[in-house]
Amino acid sequence: MSATTLKDTALALVAPGKGILAADESHATIGRRFEALGIPNSEEKRRRYRQMLFTTKGISELISGVILFDETIRQAADDGRPFVEVLASEGIIPGIKVDRGAKPLAGAPGEQVTEGLDGLRERLAEYKKLRARFAKWRAVIAIGEDGRAPTRLGLEANAHALARYAALCQEAEIVPVVEPEILMDGGHSIERCFEVTETTLHTVFHALWEHGVALEGLLLKPNMVLPGTTSARQAPVEEVAEATLRCLLRSVPAAVPGIVFLSGGQADELASAHLNAMHRLPGPLPWPLSFSYARALQAAPLTQRAFRHRARCNSAARSGAYTPELERSAV
Ligand code: 13P
Predict the structure, then answer these.
(1) How many Å apart are CA 271 and CA 301, to the nearest integer?
(2) CA–CA separation, 217 and 13 (whole Å)
(3) Which residue ranges in the chain fall short of pLDDT 70?
(4) How far is the CA of 60 from the centre of ligand 1 (A)?
(5) N or C: which end of the chain has fewer CB within 10 A?
(6) For residue 138, what are the β-bridge partners?
């Protein structure tokens, strides 16, 4: 295994001013977006939609990598070039979602564990041939209303799967993006989200260490520390930024080359504002902070112009330069 190559790829994914586009939605998830716009959810429509994103002019200055779905990594643009080639020719690093979704965890009512480890070594070898240089695995952690979930069982099952996935990725010389997502759903407070995020991250990094995963050759994709969507008290932007950084500083080792946030259902402008506010707090930080958004880059009407605008806003947020004027200045 070449730790240098893994680290170089990880650092390229968090290069200044750039972030990751997560375009790896399952057929069901992208289908919901299409349905709202009256677009049939066919393979060809999904191909054309992703082509629209990947061929947006100027996007390679704002987007460092794209996470693809299994179907998409095998598809080609209208000119016959595989999408991975279209992206690589622009200097955008192709990635692949390799988990097979979160399923109910036996023995832990209301909790989920992510599946997809069986045959993963072979699938990674194939994705490597298809030119994927990084991968994603999402663990889903819900905060229960009764204060019980997540349980130790749930946290450890998910951390164990993330660590096995990350070790297999590094063996295949693919950078693992390690994504333990604490869901925003529910009425919990920002303090409870802080507590669960901190416990989850400690559990995940312990599992990564036990499995011999090189921290220098991965990226962490965490949630921001937020109150639940139905919480009576929503937190101001600065409080979210401060809580998120305090939580990460307590739980993410400095050897990690970068942190790329998920958006998790936040409104797109808020996801930019939160990332921006983190960059306005006094530093320095041990790791670059960037974005790996799906919904917060694609929530606006499906046009190249809207996509470029959101990418530009998030790129600016990486240096604390996102402003209301920039938000209004869609070009
Ligand atoms: P969201 O930004 O929509 O949360 O998606 C990121 C992602 O890749 C989820 O796995």
Answers:
(1) 17
(2) 12
(3) 1-4, 331
(4) 20
(5) C
(6) 179
